[in-house]
Amino acid sequence: MLTIGPAFERPSIDLIEAYRHLPVATISDVLGPGHVMNASVRALRPGMRLLGAAYTLKLPPADNLGMHVAVREANAGDVIVAEQSGGALGAPVGEIMAMAAMHKGLAGIVLNGAVRDAEKLRAEPWPVFAACIYAQQCRKDGPAWLQTTIDCAGVTVHPGDLIVGDDDGVVVVPFASIASVAQEVVKKMEKESLRIASIAQGFISPAWLDAAIERAGLVLSVNQ
What we know:
Helix content: 25-40%
Strand content: 15-25%
Number of helices: 7
């Protein structure tokens, strides 16, 4: 059985492009806890960059029928975000699946599960983020749940949320917050640039450190 949720709104191209060069770590700082996927989900090789609207998918163990359907149904520019329940008993994504998704114009795949053909996937610039590598193939029997709200690697993901991935991991920006978060990230990056410049000038400790030490009740030893 395949369950496909209702049509959903995607962020505009302009909103997506506003995140083109924004780092996952700083986006995470602005959003706060609960928006970064578990550390096991990572790029297959350093330097992969992931950006696009979430097309969500939930798969049963060792079955990838839903992944085939997602590649067919997702729009160009979407990121397939897939949660595979039951652990890595089979790899829903390999070279052929990734090639089909890439030629469809999808922006990448995030899978809390296994991939295979790792050497081939790493050789392409097209981004694949996954939890592990495992050679076992999948069945194609279903069920699967598509374009519905899922929990993926510890984060709730709604269809149309913005997915950003880099070497630090994957962050999920809720649809309603995409514009405001981008603005706050740019402001934070500007502040961080000033802080880096002050360190280069010899101001090592941040201005807030003494007050934080006092609030925490820390007693510091005095070097003799």
